[in-house]
Structures
1.
Amino acid sequence: MNEPGPEGPLEAPRADSPYHRLNPLTKAVSATVTGIAALVLGGVIGPALLTLVAVIIPAAIAGVLRVLVRTTLLLSLPIGISAVLVNVFFFPAGRDVLLRVGPITATGEGLSLALEVLARILAISGAITLFYLTTRPSDFVADLEHRGVSSRLAFVANASAQTVPQMLERAGSIVAAQRARGLDTEGSIVRRLRALPPLVGPVILGTLGEVEERTMALEARGFSRPGRRTLLRIPADSGVQRLTRWLLVGGLSVLAASRILGVPG
Amino acid sequence: MLVLDTVSYRYAGAAGDAVTKISLDLRDQEVVGLVGANESGKSTVCLVASGLAPRAIGGVLGGRVLIDGADVAGRPIHELVGTVGICFQNPETQLSGVTETVFEEVAFGPANLGIDRDELVRRTGEALETLGIQGLARRDPRRLSGGQMQLVALAGLLALQPRYLVLDEPTAQLDPAGTRLVGEALQALAQRGSAILIAEHKTDLLAGLCGRIAVLQRGELAMLGGAQEVLADDRLEGLGIAAPVQGRLQRRIDALGLAATSIAPEPGR
Ligand SMILES: Nc1ncnc2c1ncn2[C@@H]1O[C@H](COP(=O)(O)OP(=O)(O)OP(=O)(O)O)[C@@H](O)[C@H]1O
Ligand SMILES: [Mg+2]
């Protein structure tokens, strides 16, 4: 077997595309600007166009459109549903009555507000999902560290980013184990909710109980040494990307300023 | 030489000492085994020898820990890690949790020390090679078998190039296949002349590995001597330690009054 060289072969295999290859900070800025802009723009058309340009098209280029749509919908479903319900049925100032069920009235104003909220939620979760799907956390962190963010902060950010899928996986295996012991984790929502408490314990405690062991193992590897760490690889960046990031941030500032100053957009 | 000189240690918040007046030395190129019943203080001795106790976990240390005659008290842990390395029993909690490949994982320790990047790549490759796991370099460390993961943890230690390795039951949480994998790697390390202090319940593993063995009983050193003598000692069972299968067989044979040579395996088998 060949000894792995310093570049390429050390990286985890993953999907590849021009969008994947962008500098992590570029993708992070794009996601952040998209999310904030969706909030600032308001309405339905604005966020929808934004989602098309900054999320859907890049996702198609990156070849992750299917996963993106599925993940985004899953992510935004709980908030989305409650937002729609609350707005449609409990919008106090609504006059345009669509539907009346007992004491509850659904109004047209409520419905359009609900759609606006939904558009924002979809834009934001889509932007975050796209970033996650196309960026290795360790790349993002290495890039930040290279730009001068402290090693410790970088570590915490990286560990948290990697913990989410790990906890999900752990939850998955615990659910499977509990189900094997006859716990009901399928069926109606109420039954599932009732099955939840015994699952939460192991997921959280399993994480906390290991903290001391993990801390010692980290100390034993020189983690507490002050000063900079050696970076195994530094994600590529370019002048064009740097300019793009500044333009995105600048554009967002102009948009926000115009909103605050009351310029009709 | 790594020396524990009449070392006592009390955990933070504990009422009494977990280990008392332990004197033990680990010479260069020597493998010393550490055995004892549960709670006898093996892990504590490992933590003290590696410098993690009291640096990382607090508590009170009595006596001295010396490396080449110099007291290490006052030296921070990140200075010690390049001299003494410690490996724990749970392979999974030893992963940094922030790497996506075995190569990155093994490089994590030396990277923390801020060494030159080329040197980092060289050391990492070397550590993988020493344990024969170059083939895992690109794998996700979280998706390995327990035995493979423990080898990765061990490689992460070797990449720090410590002169002394302290291993706290490195095979305790592994299945037989994992135990064999790690056992063979330890054999290879011992043959290369690494100085190793290893706590282990599995005396079979120690029998072929150690020059000397120390026995702990309730935090005190109960025996210290050549591996053969200690493992053949009658008191072992009373101290809560199962002698190696080979030794137990031998004693059974002796008790039955059979001539051992008549049934001993032929040499070379
Ligand atoms: N974190 C701790 N805080 C307080 N006391 C501890 C701690 N860890 C261990 N002890 C105590 O120190 C003593 C020695 O424990 P130690 O873990 O060193 O034993 P051990 O030989 O490694 O046992 P095992 O075979 O179970 O791993 C025990 O009495 C134990 O209760
Ligand atoms: Mg122990």
2.
Amino acid sequence: MAYTISASGLRKRYGDVAAVDGVSFDVEAGEFFGILGPNGAGKTTVLEIVEGLRRADGGEVSVLGLPPWPRNPRLLPRIGVQLQSSAFFERLTAREQLQTFGSLYGVPAARADAMLEMVGLTDKAGVQVEKLSGGQAQRLSIACALVHDPELVFLDEPTAALDPQARRNLWDVLAGISTEGRTIVLTTHHMDEAESLCDRVAIMDAGRILQLGAPAALVRGLDAPARVSVASGTLPVEDARALPAADEVADDGVSLVVSTRDPGAVVAALAAKDALAGVRIGGATLEDVFLELTGREYRA
Amino acid sequence: MSTYQSFTSLARAMLLGFRRDKGALFFTVLFPLMFLVIFGGVFGHQATAKVTVVAAGPVPLVDRAVAHDGDLAGTLKVVRAASRDAALKKVEKGDADAFVEQSGNALNVRYSVADQVKSGTARGLLSSIAQSANLAATGRPPAYTVTEAQVEDRSLKAIQFFTPSLLGWALASAGVFGASQTLVTWRTKGILRRLRLSPAPVPTVFAARVAVSLGIALVQFAVFVAVAHLPFFGLKLTGDWWLAIPTLMAGVLAFLGIGTLIGSWAKTQETAQLVGQLVVLPMAFLGGSFFPLDSMPGWMRAVSYVFPLRYLNQGMLDVMGRGLGPGSVLVPIAVLLGVALVTALLAVRVFRWDAA
Ligand SMILES: Nc1ncnc2c1ncn2[C@@H]1O[C@H](COP(=O)(O)OP(=O)(O)OP(=O)(O)O)[C@@H](O)[C@H]1O
Ligand SMILES: [Mg+2]
């Protein structure tokens, strides 16, 4: 089966820094693929190599069956790219940006308005990009990447610097474009984003892929305990330790947290004691996966 | 088709960006125009009445000659003073170049040596008036005559000089800063990378910039000529003045080439701005934009030959200011196109898509 993206053994050095140090992965058609990692992990560099903006020092990459380097005009109309820092023409309005980028791909000017509508910027059509908020600019940047209806889309941290509300809105937009059969590659710092959007995630750190798989599978594979927490003081710590299936108990003065592999049993026992004030149940997350893989806290 | 579409939309994007940039509009159009208004206004009325003679009593011989000879009236101005003493005082103070009185058939001239050129001219003009009168008195046609034609008007009216020269400076700034700033901004803001990811052929990006700059240059030309044409300034375009247009187009290409070279090399806007100034300002001063090449000391004139702006100024001055023919712009155009070619080739070598 021909992969949409096939990369093997990619390497890139900047002086002493091995920005990408032997990265291999394949992306299938229609997949929503995430690259997750902290600052400096090498996410952008991997994308740049796959997009054809940088030449790898070593390794092989093919995109839609074509080599992206050197600049390949047959490949370019089929991919759409949102760069990490938005690239807009100065002093052009949102609509003019889309028209200009569109015309580079032979797209009729009328499509600009459809794109604005898709990312919810219709009322900002006549506003110059310099006057858009960070989130609006980010959405416009995504619209510019999609204006020519590409089969494969690269999004480099599309939700960086957005407030939680704007992030959720953007997730809806991204989920929408992915249902149209497009292949999407996205990088992010946010574990929750990768979990909720991506079919598969590559967790990267220091230029390498540490683990690759569906988010749920990664978390399950971790076999990490769930956490049940109630308000501090609801139950003495001793009593909590005696609960069935409780592995570890800690009270930080705000909440009492019970680690367990059977959250159902713990909650049932708490209910029997009428000690459910402020109960919350947290499963393991990709954050735990990262901690397990690197031995250090994830710092986005 | 798609190439053409890319070209027009990129050109449109650049033009809109330029039009909405108040700073760029000011510096490329209004700022040089202010210089034209100031220089044209201050120096504009200097070259008219060239020599002034003052008379206290009647000087019919001189009056008659001035009344009948339009050329003479343009160079010799006769003013009156209340008394002989007052008239002589005027000459001493330099308000007039010579004093003249007529007693019988004799013209009596007194002058000061403060301005030898002017008093010399005054004396020459007055004695030629006397001689023509002598000749006329004999009643015979003159045996020897002198026909004269101007080779080149050395004492060009100020506006005839400043219009093409300040325009040259304006074109040089617009070309150098337009190209270098666009390139650096587009690179640092990632627009170049974004364009590289689009299927638009690379040359269309540059072609669009060239087209926009040529358009802006024509606007600068039109505005300059329109303002200089106002009666207050009194620019006169004669003969093949339209040859200034191909000349300025060659100039735009040369300055875009220089700007592209700076923009390809410079990493930040500040560097590009600074280097641009370091190129444009000395070039404007030594290339004859603010004062005529003819009035420079020899070594300066020799240095001026290294500045492309010199050729643009010279070419435009010849056809717009002096009314000379096509021959005068051939060398300037050739030099400017050569500069454009060399800088473009160099720029291709140092060009970078990426900030790092
Ligand atoms: N142009 C460059 N020149 C030199 N070093 C670079 C360059 N680009 C990236 N690096 C280095 O390569 C490493 C990986 O950078 P990269 O931008 O790929 O990380 P990233 O995962 O995208 O980080 P972020 O989350 O901050 O965007 C970093 O150590 C960075 O300092
Ligand atoms: Mg990055």
